[in-house]
Amino acid sequence: MQEQQILGIDVGASGIKGAIIDVSTGELLTERLRLETPKPATPDSMAETVAELTKALDYKGNLIGVGFPAIVKNGKAQTAANIDPSWIGADIEASFGKSTGKKVVALNDADAAGLACVKFGVGKGVKGTLILITIGSGLGSALFTNGRLVHNTEFGHIHMNGMIAEHYASSNTRKKEDLSWEEWGARFNEYLHHIERILSPDLILLGGGASKKFELYDEVIDVNTAVKPAELKNTAGSIGAAYYAWKVAQKKKKKKKK
Q: Which residue spans of the chain are classified as CATH 3.30.420.40?
């Protein structure tokens, strides 16, 4: 069905990625296109890039889902850890909606990736508490209890060793400090121990670029909780964003019918 073919966009600190998704299956219907995140990453410059991406994918639909690297409430960014500070308080949905001419629904980027894993990936059907940690420019998190999302958890910002966790154990930190995978893995293992103590999860999934290299550091991970790479990897954000936008639209339709 045409209404289940939704453009999902995953906004990151270094790249803005998107594809048209069949939200009934999680399947990508187009190639995954990536454009560089503009510098500085302001609302106006990023809106232009999102519009360029939408045009490049020749998207004819009216609905876009966007995973955005911030706490997102009522379509607005509440934080800006890895993007321009001018985003704080800015309306993501209005800004991207104006530049694309589409209806935009936004949520936190890690939450979007987590939704994809829970609906279409290795997290599907998992009972109890599941957390996805996305490893990239920062550390994102998505928390689920029996498949239900708890929005905007931001566990990458817990404090460790006198700093926030993502400044200690993100992919950016590994590259900046030229850490080996084993050295970085030991740091990340410390972080997972903190997560385990706080949440007592039943499953920890890893997403983002570093999840593809899991075999290079899995031997230093010794938490009691099962830890697995999220199989959807870099497509998860786009899939989850599209699915979330579609679900929000469906709920609004149902309310109108009542």
A: 2-109+238-257, 122-231
Q: Which residues pair with 234 in a beta bridge?
A: none
Q: Are 246 and 239 in contact (CB under 8 A)?
A: no
- What the block records as the tokens of 113 is 């990736």
The residue written with tokens 């905007």 in the block is: 152
Environment class of residue 176 by beta-carbon count within 10 Å: exposed (0-12), middle (13-18) or buried (19+)? exposed
pLDDT of residue 1: 58
For residue 54, the Cα-to-chain-centroid distance in whole angstroms is 19
pTM of this prediction?
0.93
Q: What's the length of the chain? A: 258
pLDDT, one tens digit per residue, over 57-116 is 999 999 999 999 999 999 999 999 889 999 999 999 999 999 999 999 999 999 999 999
Round to whole Å and give the CA distance between 3 and 250. 10
- CATH H-level, domain 2-109+238-257: superfamily: ATPase, nucleotide binding domain (3.30.420.40)
Strands 27-28 and 15-22: antiparallel
Mean per-residue pLDDT, 156-175 = 94
Q: What is the per-residue pLDDT for 136?
A: 87
Q: What angle do CA 64, 99, 93 make, to 5 degrees?
A: 50
Name the CATH architecture for the domain at 122-231. 2-Layer Sandwich (3.30)
Using alpha carbons, select from 162, 163, 218, 213 the residue that is nearest to residue 192.
218
Q: What is the mean pLDDT of the chain?
A: 94
